[in-house]
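User: I'm new to structure prediction. If I give you an amino acid sequence, what do you actually give back? Let's try with this one:
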Amino acid sequence: MNKQLLTHEADNDFIRNVGVTRLVSNIVIAQTEFQVTRYESTLFSELGIVFPIEFGRAVARRQAEFLAGRYCAKIALTELGTSDTHVSIGCHRNPIWPQKIVGSITHSDNVTLCAVSFSHCNDFIGIDVEPLMSQYVVRDIRSNVVGSQEERLLMQTGMTSEQYITLAFSAKESLFKAVFPYVGEYMGFEESQVRAISLTEQTLELELDKCYAERLKGQRHFTCHYQLQANYLITRIAGRLPK
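Assistant: Good question. You get back a string of structure tokens that encode the predicted 3D arrangement of the chain. For your 243 residues, that looks like this:
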């Protein structure tokens, strides 16, 4: 059973709410809301987050998103049980996690989430949050996100196009984040396909292009869990690679 560990108001106006959940798969997920209009650079030191020199010239919104994401990661790592909560920045702007930790950070509008686990429990993890797309956005990007076979499958669920295109987009983002440490390159949406979906289990089955299989010990099939929360859709992918 999943266990809700913590829900409280933070001690400043920038971070509004914090919630932490531990999943049965030994994953801790932290979620916060943040207010960009309340952001000040002094909040980095107040929240115990190192201000990266790479963000010295970034606009306030980008700094606020980074701070909220790293603060969320700090909470998740603390709840996981590790004393090292610093997450640095890689050469591709990807988060570099402490040793023996796998994790993923995502944010959208005023919501940020972080999922972490010990590497002996999960080899990969990816999480993504997206606001539900408008019909105008769906019209512009649907052909880039899913192929005709995928769309026929998703249409059978009874979801609106706004829901299932957002879901496919987010699921493929989660997959990219999960496998990036192994493949080391950016992937297009066409390089993974939705093969099945369960409304009861709230899962999708994704198949990754075979060109990446060798770097993932032959693994090409991934299960993505999803959750519709208010006007947001959250997806996550985690698991072990073949021995």
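You can read the tokens as a compact description of the fold. Here is one thing that stands out. The radius of gyration is 18 Å.
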